[in-house]
Amino acid sequence: ATGLSLNAASGSVDVKSSTAGTYRVLYTFSDGSCSDTTSTYIVIKPLPVAGVSYSALNFCRTLDADSAKITQTGVTGGVYASVAGLSLNAASGSIDVKSSTAGTYQVLYTFNDGSCSDTTSTYIVIKSLPVAGISYSAPNFCRTLDADSAKITQTGVAGGVYTSTAGLSLNGASGSVDVKSSTAGTYRVLYTFSDGDCSDTISTYIVIKPLPVAGISYSALNFCRTLDADSAKITQTGVAGGVYSSATGLSLNAASGSIDVKSSTAGTYRVLYTFSDGSCSDTTSTYIVIKPLPVAGISYSALNFCRKLDADSAHVTVTGITGGTFSSVAGLSLNAASGSVDVKGSTAGTYRVLYTFNDGSCSDTTSTYIVIKPLPVASISYSALNFCRKLDADSAKLTQTGVTGGVYTSAAGLSLNAASGSVDVKSSSVGTYRVLYTFSDGDCSDTISTYIVIKPLPVAGISYSALNFCRTLNADSAKITQTGVAGGVYTSTAGLSLNAASGSID
Fold it and tell me: What highest taxon heads this organism's lineage (predicted)?
């Protein structure tokens, strides 16, 4: 019958070309004389039907890949098989993708409906994962304000996407991290990439370290560069053990931060403090101003001043900053505002005069010296105050003590020896004279004085009635006529009987 693919000569049946069904096969034969027909039956069974397929042709061999589940239709209960390398569940057809070796596999499903068995197949491709690697130049980065971005080194498949958790300032395309804009912490950076078939994610870690904290400050912004200025001490908080630095001109102790103010050059300086907590270092700074001292000078017209009763005040000349205050030790009669010295009101001695002045920022003191010299000492006196101007009068001699070598002067009319002070009385005019003695000890001079009176002689006249008298027994006494000053005493040589009181001669 039609449907059975029967070889008429041999009786062979091409089963797979025949249509399923029950067939009677007739065999007609002859022995040359007679012919006959016999028959038998053959049943062509239809194959059982089944289908298998996976959800996709390609599966990527990721570490977290789910099993590839098969969809099977038709006769169940068959057996799945494939070549080595494919981790295949023979009963369910599921494939453990991540345990399989990359490759293309034919999966066979052999099944039976109780009469016939058959095998169907499908293909599955286990794709190898793309390969990439990422790493930063270091695991730890310090979050400094001038930190460069942390650049990533990427190998293998490029063009992936970088991600991390909030707080990390991450460039999704390049993987670079803006360290200074990131929050301190430990971050896992993921790189997800694909080769067009499969994608994968790898990761690395980066630690953004918080900067150590420190602060520095000086007790003031401005320091005056005085010769006796103390060091400017710094107050440091936070991480200790750092190093201080600044520009040339500031005499700075690198270990302590102290500044030798008097050895520094005037100017404004930024002092840097670089410190580390063992992981990260940072630099903080503060400013200090070394002020130049104001400039002033003082001087008197001379070093030495003599303490005379008529001495003028010693006036000072000030250059530079004015308006300061003058001072010295006790004994110097000093005007604190003007610097003038009342010489005659001061005690003899050597004095340092200080001038303290201020320019509004800094003060300083300059000084000069002044010597108040004691006056030299001398005395003069005559043997008497009054001297009579007689023709035979001796000179009036002077007694002088103390400083010698001075000069004597007086008014006109007194015949005075300028070198010795002796007075020629008889050559002097009558009068009262002040004799001045001016002398010097080499530093100071002085003048002292005494008085001398040159007295005029008293005036009187005497005369007898005649020049000649005869010595008779009855002669009268010779009477004298006296004018002028009376009450004097009359005297003569021996032989003349003279009344000393009246001047009469017997």
Answer: Bacteria
Query: Which tokens hold the place of 460?
Result: 């009187």
Whether the CB-CB separation of 301 and 315 falls below 8 Å is answered with yes
Query: Can you read off the two tokens belonging to residue 471?
Result: 């010595």
Q: Which two tokens stand for residue 174?
A: 């390049």
Alpha-carbon span 55 to 70, nearest angstrom: 7
E strand or H helix at 168, and its extent?
A: none
Q: In CATH, what number does 214-291 get?
A: 2.60.40
- pLDDT score for 62: 77
- The CA distance from 124 to 317, in Å, is 112
* E strand spans, 277-348: 281-291, 296-300, 304-306, 316-320, 325-327
pTM for the whole structure = 0.60
Please identify, in words, the CATH class of the domain defined by 378-455. mainly beta
Decide: residue 124, CB within 10 A, 0-12 exposed, 13-18 middle, 19+ buried.
Answer: buried
CATH number of the domain at 296-373, out of 1.10.287, 3.90.550, 2.60.120, 2.60.40? 2.60.40
Q: Where are the domains of the chain?
A: 1-46, 50-127, 132-209, 214-291, 296-373, 378-455, 461-506
pLDDT in tens, 195-204: 998 999 999 9
CA dist 373 → 120, 331, 341, 344, 442 (Å): 139, 13, 13, 10, 11
Amino acid at 484: G
Average the pLDDT over 361-370 and give the result. Answer: 94
CATH class of 50-127: mainly beta
Pick the CATH number of 132-209 from 3.90.190.10, 1.10.510.10, 2.40.50.100, 2.60.40.2710: 2.60.40.2710
For residue range 310-363, list pLDDT tens digits in order.
Answer: 667 899 999 999 999 999 999 999 999 999 999 999 999 999 999 999 999 999
Round to whole Å and give the CA distance between 391 and 425: 9
What are the b/e assignments for 131-150, b being 16+ CB within 10 Å?
A: ebebebeeeebbbeeebebb
- Identity of residue 295: V
d(CA 346, CA 331): 6
